[in-house]
Design brief:
This protein has 433 residues and is α/β, with parallel strands linked by helices. The protein contains 18 helices and 14 strands. Helix 6 runs parallel beside helix 7. The protein starts with a strand and ends with a helix.
Length: 433
Amino acid sequence: MRIIELTKESKADLLNGLLKRSPNHYSEYENKVNEILDNVRTKRDQALFEYTLKFDGFALNAENIRVTEAEIEEAYRRLEPALVDVIRRSGENIRDFHRKQLRTGWFDTKEDGSLLGMKLTPIARAGVYVPGGKAAYPSSVLMNVIPAKVAGVKDIIMTTPPGPDGHVNPGTLVAADIAGVDAIYKVGGAQAVAAMAFGTESLPKVDKITGPGNIFVALAKKAVYGYVGIDSVAGPSEILVLADGHANPRYVAADLLSQAEHDELASAILITTSRTLAEEVSKEVERFTQNLSRKEIIRRSLDNYGCILLADNLQDAVDAANEIASEHLEILTENPFEVMAKIRNAGAIFLGESSCEPLGDYFAGPNHILPTNGTARFFSPLNVDDFMKKTSIISYSREALEKVHREIALFADSEGLTAHAGSIKVRFEEAQN
């Protein structure tokens, strides 16, 4: 891996390079995505069936679009019992973690008869997109569905592309069943996003769409935002390891590679105060890569978006980490909790050498649907609140309103909204006469 001195210029170059991976920079695909969205909105099922045959090689129709109970039972038989058990245990951890996020509404009353409050209501129907083929991730099924279940969403549907034989990845089906999905449809790509956003004869319209996907899926979610809610427009995966001379170089190298293998656009960065660690990690990365199954993807990822930044001191390293605002941040320092207190921007923080990133991806419980491309500056991980709506409650007695009605009317008049002011004044016109 490249070792670069951390300077103002090198940091700016790095940030500019990382931003190029964002779906916002792939406008050449937008016309094709918009064409798919328009066709599904107007032709509905017909367009879904045509696109599935074209892109997935499967003759989809109204009778086979929905996954059956028999197919789910077959999926269980195709998976090793040990893997099914791990998926169940992971689901329990995710459920336990997200239950702690649940909040209740509140009401505040005063003696003058005024009442203010907040009412929390789950969305009615959630739609989860799940990639298929080589990019099938049962763990993401759990991460998307379980928070919706905990929030109280009554109807959760899932779309995922079929293979040419019409089968869906068995791990995806088992995870969906364990998580509690209500219906699974064999549709993928931008056309699946369009179907969930607008509805078709076979697939119902949802209120919010979550889940990862390729650039076409990401751009489709961006385009339908406003018709429905979405979680985010996520970019390629990324990891930032912040380490000092106490870190184990083999652990650091292995953790960087755990993200680099995702995608040629994935980013793996080490910021360290130790030149010795930097050089040892670079050597370990090369040793590990030679024996990994996705070594060509890893090399392209590291060549384009991977590097080791050598910082003069730990505070400079922390400042750089906050500016990068990485999806995953591992802190491998002598006192990781002290460093963590200085971190403002990160999707998920992993503390200490036994808290490697895959622990969060698969098992610990916190959500692995995280903000990418620097959006951890203003976005949070997927959580229960993403599936809840908050409604303000206002109730004033006549006595409470009478005390403030002149001030409210004055405020409205100052904005030129005389009808607003009139709505207040009409309630006290007898007193004014």
